[in-house]
Write a structure and sequence with these properties.
single chain; alpha+beta; Alpha-Beta Plaits; two-stranded antiparallel ribbon; 2 helices; 15% helix; 30% strand; globular; binds iron/sulfur cluster
């Protein structure tokens, strides 16, 4: 079954923390205050973080092998 998950472009992330605040699964952490990282084992691919990110640097991807 395909699994959807969020992926952050860490180079463009401005570490505002908005994505971490809205994630219903607490799957996003700001790594050492510099950029957001997604725990794929917790992410359900809802896309809320991607819609919230003011920098538009989160994309929801589909892993067909998961
Ligand atoms: S897609 Fe949903 S569950 Fe996954 S990190 Fe974003 S807000 Fe959290
Ligand atoms: S909302 Fe966007 S810019 Fe802000 S921490 Fe998350 S990924 Fe980075």
């Amino acid at each position: 079954m395909a699994k959807r998950y969020a992926e952050v472009n860490s180079v463009l992330c401005v570490s505002c923390g908005a994505c971490a605040e809205v994630c219903p699964k607490s799957a996003i952490k700001i790594w050492r205050g510099s950029y957001a990282i997604v725990d794929k084992s917790l992410c359900i691919g809802c896309g809320l973080c991607a819609r919230t990110c003011p920098a538009g640097v989160i994309e929801v991807k589909i892993n067909e092998l998961a």
